[in-house]
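Newbie here. two chains, one complex. Structure please?
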Amino acid sequence: VRTLRSAGWYVTSILITIVFLFPVYWMFAVSLKTPQEIFKFPPAWYPATPQLQNFLVLFRDGDVWSVWNSLVIASISTLIAMAFGTLCAHSIVRFRTGGENLAVWIISQRMLPPIAVVFPIFLLYAKAGWADTYHGLILLYTAFALPYVIWMMRGYLQEIPVELEESALVDGCSRWGVLRHVVIPVARSGLFATAVFAFIFSWNEFLFALVLTRTQVITYPVQISQYFGAQSTFWAKISAMSVLGTLPVFFAVAAFQRYLVRGISLGAVKG
Amino acid sequence: MATGAAAVTTAAPITRAAGAVGSGNFKYLLIAPAVLILLAFGLFPFLYSVVVSFQKLSLLDQYTDFQGLLNYRRLVNDQRLWSAVLHTVGITAVALPLQLVLGLLLAHHFLAERPLKRLFVALLIIPSVISPMVAGSMWRLMFDDRYGPINQMIGWVLGEHVSILWTIQAAWAYPAIIICDVWEWTPFMFIILLAALSNVDGEQLDAAAIDGANAWQSFRYVSLPAIWPVMMIALLIRGLDLIRLFDIVWQLTRGGPGNATETISIYMFVRGFQEFETSYTGAMVVVLILLFTAVLIAALRRMEIAR
């Protein structure tokens, strides 16, 4: 009976996994099909002769620039947000700067509706000539990542025993020295995990980029949205670009799986 | 939390130990760049929206003098806005409980330690980490009436050819949106609840079992109270995400047919960026931000997360 129940558990688990992963499989399958095969009726469930033509077309037509734009914008904004956010979190944790009010205000900034945030930004950027520029998007994404970074780093820094910092101060370390030689090395894994998830959130973001880009700095999600036209829908490009946008996320999450629950629950679960 | 309390009591000795450099300036120096950026991109634009909302700016009008509550009065009588609110609340009311219940069931299923469990969990997380934009595109391909596999599979079950226009007919667009959102975010609920359930005190569960509690009773009276705070945070995060839903609807239906699936965010996008109703959109922004901030501050103060 026991082995039977165990077998039942595995069968159920496999079925659940298939249901949840099928759409992802379908996207990969479509991206490897030939254009004729994509529009075959009834639909083919696997590419008869897998080929990379759809990806090569993205390179040939220059569409991959949008992936490059996403990479530049998400990386630089993550770096800036990590630097400023970690300093801010250190101050909040060690000196109780701003008390509970500052912390609550910061996290509430994270949860505001993006449409309400981006609308006035759009008006201001239009006046400043910042629409469709790298620095415009990078600054907005920095502001978008900051509350998350501060909040997560606050959790990681709280776990550092204060005695460590005290003894460094007694040994003659300056306050900056304590940060550089004690806090940051001790919190290293938390720093990396926070940076990875902050990067993924910016990488996946759509609405800010849709509103603030025209032609120069469109990111890959905006590029995908442009493939859906009134008359024709470019299935091959949609699937290939989606795969390109998803692969880095897969690798990042696989590498930082241990921190995932904490990262997406805003630190509610420390597990 | 204990570590937080420790920081409070020990902050003072550190200050004294610092000697020449008082923490007075140092601590503000540390928060300055972050707070300035947040003010510049949060508070300042909000104040700008307030100003704009009292003017009369649109594609046709350019009146920058004070117009009183003109735009706010218009909100009250805007039928399309109220339908958008209704659509959004409707999607949330169906999708959120579904995600919670499915997430709980999955967490319960994967609670016991077994070989390969970690592999299954890792695979099941995938929908929640890919871009909502990609998720929407994926399901658009899946739901295609002719070249997508959904209609094909329904056809197999029914034994006849079906051609449901999922993203084109209003009656089917809602199931399509909800399926996509539930697919994407059930894994989010699942892994958070799984982590919370794993932390439930085993001895209490054993004690409940000895007292003759059945599976439902021990969940209801032992596990549920233990996971409650985490569950509330997960519901808050997801609930707010659903109220501001944009990406997947944009990709699946663009708010159509007509404006049958228009959410609050999509309606504001249309007014602000396609019809250039600047002042009117400004009024919507102000109301939305005030509502969100009120809910957030009330909720965050009650929750463990703020400690």
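Moderator note: The first helix of chain A runs from residue 2 to 32. The CA atoms of residues 7 and 13 of chain A lie 10 Å apart. Thread marked as resolved.
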